[in-house]
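A brief tutorial aside. Many learners find it easier to grasp structure tokens once they have seen a single protein encoded end to end. The record that follows does exactly this for DNA repair protein RadA. Read the sequence first, then the structure, and try to relate runs of similar tokens to stretches of the chain.
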Amino acid sequence: MRVERLEVVWQMPECGQWGTVEEFHEARPAAGSKTAAPGRTSRTQSITVADTSRSAAKPITEIGTETVERLSTGFSEFDRVLGGGVVPGSVTLIAGEPGIGKSTLLLQTAGNVARVVANADNSKAHTVLYISGEESQAQVRLRASRINAVEPNLLLASTTDLATALGLIEQTKPALVIVDSAQTIVSQEVDGISGGSTQVREVASALIDTAKTLDIPVFLVGHVTKDGSIAGPRTLEHLVDVVCQFEGDSETALRMLRAIKNRFGPTDEVGCFDMSGEGIEEVTDPSGLFLSGGGPSTTDSAPVEGTCVTFTLDGHRSLPIEVQALVTKSVLPTPRRAVNGVDPSRIAMLTAVLYRHSKLNLLANDLYVSTIAGGQAKEPGSDLAIVSALASAATAKPIAKTTCAIGEISLTGQVRPAPRMEYRLREAARLGFTTAVIPPLRKPVHIDGLRLIEAGTLADALEALGVKKVSNTSRDASGHAQ
């Protein structure tokens, strides 16, 4: 079968001529080049001989290991999460839910950096460029006034055009750049809507290239989706150097900054902040936030039944968590299990273990278990404190305020050690706890001022805490009353 070539001929309606319309294809820019903004050269033209020599391959033994001077954010908690401060030329992505305080944190950080002078003779201060694609300059100025971040060296710009943003960075050459947010900046060189995968990838690549070329650190604000993941392509998290998650409960003022990815420091650090109407304040010692009544140091209040303190690990930080429990008689066919800050699936398991191995039947009761101040007791090391609080509430026997319980409960009723027990126990001694009920340790640990009671089974642990129920009812091997 012979296929003839089909040629389309157009007629101009104005003059009636045929074949005068020619097809035109716009030349696409070469890879790695960007359209220059007014007064700005393209990335291809800005490559110098020094850049070429710096990118040449060298033996690893000839590469220097000089210490890079980091830029302080003005928050010791923020600096610790970043690994000691902001590395020059790095790109950090700050993600979090709407209204959690991402913009407030970064605007206050911008004010802190702009407030610090760059040299000892106080002649030159750091310049910070804050680019907002969501708010106008006046709106950002109002928020800066509220949180005391108004500084003459803090430059504000409101734009959604990528070329304009890159031109401002090259023109001002600040010590720090903040772009709020990556999903609102649009490049005219690629197709796609604002916040789409193509646009976000292009914007991130251009900002990263500018940061590396000019050796200027950049903070990017990232939106999150409904399930809590960072919006945009997954490659965005691979391109940047640091990914931090700013999280917290909207009903409390506590905010946590976690490092999910960090090329210049650990990824298990966490920073604590307190959100207020005047801005964000760092909490250098959050231990007292999760304890009611001032903790064990206060002796003016009597212990309350249904409470027990444990110590959890959040990164390199050990935090005391007070677990509160309430046990009531159920009037429903199916008893209620309401929890807050505790894993709901473990409550059902621990209740069954408590019935089988400690002869304390709570299966027909309504159980309410909660932590205070938004604390999280979801790791297995909190099991012993949870069952102790339930047993204390059921038997109406309070646990001493100076006593804590740390350990994991197995289905066989054994108490197992939690990771980094010595680190938790030293924090307990620092806060004033005098007794700790723990599982048997493989290596003996001595903590000054802290009495350690090792309990291998759940029944022994409850007896050491003074909340074991005394029952005269004999039971068979299955644990049921005879």
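Self-check: The domain at 307-465 is CATH 3.30.230.10 (Ribosomal Protein S5; domain 2). If you spotted this yourself, you are ready for the next section.
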